[in-house]
Structure prediction request, 1516 residues.
Amino acid sequence: MNNCSTELQAAFEQTRRYFLGQSGCIGLGAMALSTLMNEACNADDNQSVAISRNGQGLPHFAPKAKRVIFLTQSGGPSQIELYDDKPGLKKLAGQKLPDSVRNGQRLTGMTRGKPQLVMPAHSVFRKRGQAGATVSDWLPHIAGVADELCFVKSMVTDQINHAPAMTKFLTGHHLTGRPSMGSWLSYGLGSENRDLPDYLVLLSKMKRGSDQPLYDHYWGSGFLPSVYQGVKLRSAKDPVLYLNDPEGMPRHLRRNMLNGLNELNQIRYEETGDPEIETRIQQYEMAYRMQASVPDLTDVSDEPESTFQLYGPDSRRPGSYAANCILARRLAERGVRFVQLFHPDWDHHSRLRSWCTARCRDTDQASAGLIKDLKQRGMLDDTLVIWGGEFGRSVAGQGKWDSPEGGRDHHPRCFTIWMAGGGIRPGMSYGATDEYSYNAVVDPVHVRDLHATVLHLLGIEHERFTYRSQGLDFRLTGVESSRVVRDLIA
Amino acid sequence: MEPIDFNRDIRPILSDNCFACHGFDAAARATALRLDTLEGATEDLGGYAALVPGNPQASEILARILSTDEEMRMPPAESHKKPLNAKAVSLIRQWIEEGAEWGKHWAFVSPVAAALPATATHPVDHFVEASLHEQNMKLSPPALPHTLARRLAFDLTGLPPSSEEVAALTDSPDSAAWSRWIDRLLASPQFGERMAMWWLDGARYADTDGFQSDATRQNWPWRDWVVSSFNANRPFDEFTIEQFAGDLLPEATDEQRLATCFHRNHMHNGEGGRDPAESRVDYVLDRTNTMGTLWLGLTLGCTQCHDHKFDPISQRDYYSLTAYFNSIDEDGKAGGGAKPFLQYRSPLAKQAVLESTAVLRKMERQVEEAKEAAESAFTASLDQMLVEARTTFQPWKVIQPASLRTTEGTVLAVDAEGMIRSNDSGQYQDDFVIEVPADTIDRISGIRLEVFADEQHADAKYSYAASGEFILTNVKLQLRSRKTATIVDLPLVRATASVQGKGVDTKYGSASGTLDDDPRTGWTTRTKPVEPVQVVVFELAEPIELSQDSVLDVVLLQRSLAPRELIGRFRLSVTNQRGRAVRSLDPMPMEQLAKRITDYESETENVFSAVDIPADLRSRLFDQYLADDPSWREASRLREQASRQVNTAKSAAGDLRVTVLSERSEPRKTHVLVRGVWNQHGDEVQPGVLTAVLPRSAAFSGPNASQDAAGEIASRLELAKWIVSKRNPLTARVITNHVWQLFFGAGLVRTPNDFGLQGEMPTHPELLDWLAVDFMDHDWDFKHLVRRIVTSRTYQQASHVTPALLEIDPENRLLARGARFRLPSWMIRDASLAASGLLNRTVGGPPIFAYQPPGVWQDQFMGRFKYESTLGPGQYRRTLYTFWRRSSAPTFLFDSAMRRTCEVVPRRTNTPLHALTLLNDLTSLEAARALAERTWVGNLSTDVELYLSQMFHTVLSRFPSDHERQVLVREYRQAEDYYQTDVAAAKALTSVGQLPEPNESTISELAAQMMMASMILNLDEAITHE
Prediction:
């Protein structure tokens, strides 16, 4: 805290508690102002830990990761086709899934009452890299960086439909109303960049109407103040909604207008004494700065040709997943705390051989490119990258198991994600499923364990990171017990 | 020392620190000890007790709290609760010393109105001043008249007062004038709209289902019912009963049935694999929880899975409550299957039909005008067309590719005629990429692909696959910039094919399947007779002009599941003709013209001239011409939109299906759900009210029993009557608190959603109780409650704050000043429409689509839903009426309730995104221009100061100070100077939305005025409840 006096901090803490405290009814502007002060203080000393937020003393200990890039694959990618190699399934092809394996697992309305016949993977597997992780030939680029990744093959959730499962995956609870992980971190850790929001969300631009809409509560702040919600960065004229001044309003004129506005607001502040007005002045100023910082971020014309070669041809198409991966790296470079990409349509109920491979083509090279890029820039050490969707897919074929038109239904009892960087142990495959890739039988990792582990990497003890709402102290990991999976940590 | 008040001082400490393990939830109790009852706390634990009244030394609870032994200390370390601080410890010690008096939680004891002394001028002020007096403080002086006028107008109608209204009040500020003004506001139709916005947030009202399919509903007549209920001042008990059980009332009217839509406003899950039975259970729980939050201030959701940790409500109690809602004649389906429905016709849809029809007429006129305007230019161009038709015109120009590539390795070769062949190298799938040379044609509006049969192919068909068939899964047109390395996909909007077949996978067939980027659909001619050539034509959304700065690739994706069905021989051509030319395979009008010329001149000796063009061909040529005319295109786009708008309005005026409540003939059994899981049935339960709040017998006995529900069978009607029983300790307090919160920014209870043990105590308990009793004693007269509050000096005091006040009472809990807080975003929008004169005050009717930036729905739904903002006066309706898509709330409404579950706590943050919205949202910009025009009324007055002051007054209800006026004039001059030198910028700024073209002669001034209007509308004072 080089330039910040202790009194200022104390005043800040006091104000913050007043305005953040238990009552959600009071203007939160003072808090936003304090956030700005906080950042200004930290700008001089990046090593110093941010001022304790909400009196919780965050982070609780030295973090391994400073920021997160979450590559959300929406719809439920098939672990059976992509990562969880079960060569034995070939022999079991077409056979009924034993009841002992299914063990009462409920099915969705799409396959209930239909025979559960084993469909082996449509893809071909190989062992990759030094560590020998299994990645299928549908993801050749990810396979190429397998030694940087940590595969968790025993992920478990308890939701079988998209919206509840994704809500659970991102907020820790299947019902809406809780903050998403990015909001929690934005709230807890704040930003290292005073010209950009803490939590940015990028959706892949698709041509086709998606079967799983991306609800805005996926990046919502739930009961946390809405300053912590994810801000969508769009591939459009206005990358952030309402960012651009209208045509015919040049920048210098906007500057003039804001000077006048600030001056009049200052007069009002002196009359009313309401500190909220000072905050408003600051917010209009930050808006003005964002008008410059966001285009600087999204304009990739300063990227060399090698960048596009690294992320693949689709990275040249603004709005594509691959282009968003480049933006994710640029955001990480600018110190944004939490960047979340969403790529839809991993919901392969039928024809997964063409539909799933299409998603692989959309994402494979760019996901791997991001890992390589972060590594070559020395940023992988303190940037945690997470790749995964809300659940996995069933070993039973949906439709005809022996037809190229076959697909798979949702499956909550096991799925695979991978992580890299940010203190994660590279070149590791953790946990295992049974011979059907149906049940996580070795070291199951529940979604809430994942949350606990991610928070841990960011220096947060999940049980002590709470927010009071409706008289209860809520936390991301919820009320059931969850564990930090220490084996995943380097 | 002040004596201890158990409810105020002790219970919160116990609740916060002890009840999670020693509270009401038996299952969660760590030991047999419970501290939530006096009996439990004083129970003999074998020679000692946790609590020994009067004897702190003997009370184990204190010993454990103070223990230095980690193992012994309470609360224990694993709870992650901090040890109690010194203040809490001393409070507990004092409490025990004073005899450990226990009390029932305040909110579960019926409110009693304390007697007012004869000297009390106003009940609200009496209680507030009493507590201020204790602190040696007093109320602030009254707010200035214009401030009070604004405060009242915003609070009661959600709109600012007009300049005339303010002038009248500031001129004669006697109390009778104020009283009349309050009555006028309460009687205005905008009162109901304002209150409805509050109620809709609690009711989680939206126009769509939410979840995956997010289907559109037709429940808006219920919104109108809410507005009219508030306007008619329907007593709140009746208002409640009809929403819970309107269908069960004797000879229920359609309006009473409509009221029950309240309990069907929850989300509906129509996801493909979703079990409707599970959804149905969710809905029952949602209703119960919503009732808990909105009417009772209870966090009932906590008891879904276990007994309440803090409040005396068991899981069994909870499921007994749900039983009232468990026999609705519903089956958990969404969209059109979400029965029960009420067939309903709204009398309030007519205005939308009238408005939209008028807009359509206007747009039709504009199309005609554009057509007429183009006619002469068309006629003049006919000779040129004749020349082209005779000489250079080519309907389709064959592409001679600049390069050929494939993704998977198929080799392509082209001959001099542009015929492209692929080789037979065995790829299962591939993408063919054909680069179009920049000099092929001046512009491209359409692309034609010809697929040729060939002897070399299997069965002399179209490919080397065993089947001889091809499947084209997708076609992309990609423009690669040579400068920036970016690629843009140029949208194709239509594919028209010579024939469509059917694949082995029957999803393949139609050529439209090539436009969706989905490899599971695509074009094939399989099953149709083999022809020498098959043709498909693609239309571009917008023609593209090629330049040397960019490269255009046509990409033919063949990613089907049928191996090797890749096109063997093909040719690509392009055209620059628009309209029908690229929407059909028929000869283009110019082609027809060329043929006509040839035919004519071979049949006769004469030279063909424009007058010889037959009428039908001339008309086709004219259509072709118009297809390229920007004014006609824009006019006809608007006409189509207007016509869709009329259709929507007409269907809104027809029979609607509103989701409502009705009982099924056979009641369902209700069970406790183990851990809240929908199909894990525990004990069966019967419908039952919350005994800890008000036992059934107490609700329905006594002198009014016959009018109440004594002997009523267990039904929703009983439940509703229990809620509004005058003995119910919660309802009147909770509702009073909501209303207080609307006007003061925060409730007397700062946790409006939790009146339970973990909620906050009221800041003024006696005041809350007095108002609640008064509300009930006046037979739940809602307007009476409102009037009671706003006529107080407490409400009417100035909202200025001094450093001292901020220091003593930063949250204004003592109410020594008026409430100053940012207006809700919907009110800000309505206020700027009002100030600008654009506001359309029509009450009721179907939703409108307020301006929202393009592409927001497309981003989230990948194009499944398209947002079209309303054309015409509907655009300027109040925000209450704007269409609310559950999964993508209106973007301009920051800090709004999410409308997914019941919400009663306002969000109020202050972020740069809000600033950007208010600066740049189209509504704000239109309002700014309209406000400028309204102020200057077309005058080019030199008295800028006067007009700026007037505009300032229109927005803020006061004139600027000298200092403020100086700033305004200075800023205006700077802007005016700039726009006089850059008239194009002035034109761009002022050409906004649907407003008519600005007057060119005063455009620089208008731009400067508009900028000033925007600045004033963005002032903190303009968007703040002062």
